[in-house]
Amino acid sequence: MRLLIVEDDDILRDGLKVGLSLAGFTTDAVATCEGALAALEANRFDAVVLDLMLPDGSGLDVLKSLRTARDETPVLMLTARDAVVDRIAGLDTGADDYLGKPFDLDEVAARLRALTRRSTGRSSTELRWRDVTLVPASRLVERAGRQVRLSRREFTILQALMSHPGAILSKARLEDKLYGWQEEVESNTVEVHIHHLRAKLGAGLIETVRGLGYRLGPEP
Description:
220 residues; alpha/beta; Rossmann fold; Arc Repressor Mutant, subunit A; 2 domains; 4-stranded antiparallel β-sheet; 8 helices; 22% strand; elongated; cytoplasm; phosphoprotein; Two-component system response regulator QseB
């Protein structure tokens, strides 16, 4: 799951980036409204963590721009301004959730998982396909009731595919899930991880659609 963090405090921004990366998210971070708008125009994110008070304006302006463009990317407002009137303004502008500072990082991660779960129309906290179960919160994967160990990137690819059953996800889209801006993308990384997933979870779980990308294999 790829996140954009918009926070002008250097220490807090770095802490969010590191902490949410350890929780399994792929994170990019900016410090201004201008940087946020440029990032959102150029990239696809699964969710945005958005501060309200930024050096060049208000996070509400970023949110308004996003919703005016009919971009439904889930947005979690994370700000020291958490009076009722501020929460109402944020939610009525189009925020999906609102959390005041100081905050617990585990709660931020849980709220982001809930936002992305709702954005894909799911109510369950687990993903299931065939005999494979994936639990995002605990990063647990089981096949036929037996735990399977996956690397962080193998887990990310599997989660992306299981979140969109039947959909074809291109190699480029999967790379977007795996890498932030400052990470070098290796040319055959997706293919290698798909190969490992098939070896661990069954060759028929993931199909290659030639020239288009990958999708989950059909239910038996």
